[in-house]
């Protein structure tokens, strides 16, 4: 390693969050506008932890109806079935398409829950001023930023099935309230991770 | 030393001096591993061509049906807008609204804004609303979900396959290509485009 890295905060520099332009004092003051693109300058994302907590808690609450309410109704002349996310996954598995069941399970169950756990870990570690494994925690943040939007998969599948399966004779598919809740969960978790400022992981002093 | 030569890691706040990279090289943050910048292989002409190709494929993906179903003579085809409208009519308006934004309006706006910015820069100046266009592009980036919708189409097809006859439409192939082109287009770093704009205005070749 070639010595310690210097941070922008120590040097009185701010890098613009929109265009990357680096500014020095006296221009680099919270609330000033970027000289190049006009975006407001911030040392850190404003109320990062509070906003992240708010979106995350809302998402976790909404996750309950998203799983218990009907995602998709299949109606045909003989019977009608209501599917939740999990019963949809089980149906795919039983119907002889386990690959599909795994894809939907990962996107709709593992990714959201993984994101809840990851964000909770990040938030709690920052609150406690932890100095452990900052590289790993920053990497964790990058992962949840990259994969978060894939959870929208099941919502899109339902929308497509509703559009396609509309036959008088053979039945139709309708979307249920679960689809609204689940879409909301995905949007809220994305807003939570966008609100979180990974620089907070690095702001706490090294413990000796 | 000019501040233009500095780069600040947006994930851990480390400061580095920018140095020229060889083709294919990328600069990662030594402290947190975040990707900082890559070798400039920005070519306005090429990027503009990519934008126009994406626009054409976008139109095709939306005009032609993505899939059609045939259930013993009864036939039904769905376009992307058809899916949005059907979802709306099915009583889950929020789902229709979100889907329309994420797979139609955001990708469309990205294509239009890229075309606007690039056409302006090619003429050797910043277009009038350059700042606003660039801010809108960077805000929309995380919310553009064509590739997720693409996987959704495939899952829906496999789900219906076996129960009914599924006929892939021109819209499906177009949408698949759209997904790839849009990914290529948005893989360009918007911060590089800001640098290019400064070069273009200063009369330096991009």
TrEMBL record, chain B:
Domain of life, per lineage: Bacteria
Protein name: Paraquat-inducible protein A
Pfam annotation, one family: PqiA
InterPro entries: PqiA-like (IPR007498)
Lineage, broadest ranks: Bacteria, Pseudomonadati, Pseudomonadota, Gammaproteobacteria, Nevskiales
Transmembrane segments annotated in the record for this chain: 47-67, 96-121, 142-160, 166-185
Keywords (A to Z) from UniProt: Membrane, Transmembrane, Transmembrane helix
